[in-house]
UniProtKB/TrEMBL annotation:
Gene3D superfamilies tied to this protein: HAD superfamily/HAD-like, Putative phosphatase, domain 2
Protein name, per record: Sugar-phosphatase
Superkingdom in the source lineage: Bacteria
Native source organism of the sequence: Kribbella pratensis
Recorded GO MF terms: sugar-phosphatase activity
Amino acid sequence: MGGVREIMEIRDIRAVLFDMDGTLVDSDAVVDRSWSRWATEYGVPVADVLAIAHGSPAEATITRMRPDLSPAERAAAVARVLDIECDDMSDVVATPGALELTALLDQMGLPWAVYTSASTRLAKVRLGAVGISPSILVTLDDVERGKPDPEGYLRAAELLGVPAVQCLVVEDTVVGLTAGRASGALTAGLKGIAADIELADLHQLARLFKGSE
């Protein structure tokens, strides 16, 4: 999308809905470490787990990797990976531009929320570790259907009091972007993901918002 058109689109935005991991929080290394450890404990190929774990609900990943588990065993497996992730915050940091962008949105009076495939417990730990405090946080615990279903983004928009079609969803995975697109929102993609607005980092999005003032 060209720069002028991007600014025109940004001017129509009334709220921003962020993914967490990989978008606001650089947790890629800890996600890889945590799921690698879980995969080893549960006897599944690490590479296969890492290929699908990012951006997807833990239960969905575990169900695909270990369809033989009973409901109770699956719940225990989900709890196990959550414990591993919550215990490892050693190199969790804000992504480039995340703090600048969220501060700018607050300054502009533009509401924003976070919707993540993580649990509430994990989301609060990671966001707290990087100093990001959304007024609205929607997690996997708040929805019946996780990404790529749009339920979470629709819920976040509703809580902000803004129609989803007037929101911008910012994502770094295909599964998350699919959810954002299905909600009717404008989309912005990081890490080379095809979206309405394609971003190198959140500094670029901050510049677009500044240019729209």
